[in-house]
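Kindly inspect this one:
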Amino acid sequence: MEGKKDETDEKRSIVVGPWGGNGGTNWDDGFYNGIREITLKYDRCIDLICVVYDKNGKPVSGLKHGGGGGTKTAEIKLQFPEEFLIAVTGHYYPVVRGGSPVIRSLMFKSNRRTFGPYGVEEGTPFFFPMEGGQIVGFKGKSGWYLDAIGFHISKTKAPKVMQNFQQRFRRLTSSLPFAPPPRDGGDNRAKSTINS
């Protein structure tokens, strides 16, 4: 059913973060099967983020979060479902003196590649690695800029090829005959004798 959350998937996902400042308005894209694309607008900080998710094999565009600034654009296209996000790093720091911290830089790591860094690596660093899982949704705060960022994470499911291999391997090993223990309780290795 489109738009309805799968309670089983929701129970398997957890929310981490956000990292960044207190400015802006809270937003939460929710959790999905995975991430297909990420678009960033940036310059001295991350001005805007927009994510295209995967929901049951179909692309679902999230809302744009942030302002209209940023002179540079980054479009990250993952080769979903084989490629998925496993880590995000970045920095947060005020973009104006006396202002609230905002996300100054972001770098994304998939199970295959690294994208970025985008923006200015200045201020307080944050690092979120995912071992044995993947990032399946974004949340945060935004106004004129991307003020804070957090993630929905889910345990990675083994690809079908790997599942099939594991099943065949189990069947193969369970059908192998085991050698009986040695009768004399000793070493079964061949013994050589030397005639003099």
Remarks:
- The longest helix spans residues 160-175.
- DSSP finds two helices and 13 strands in the chain.
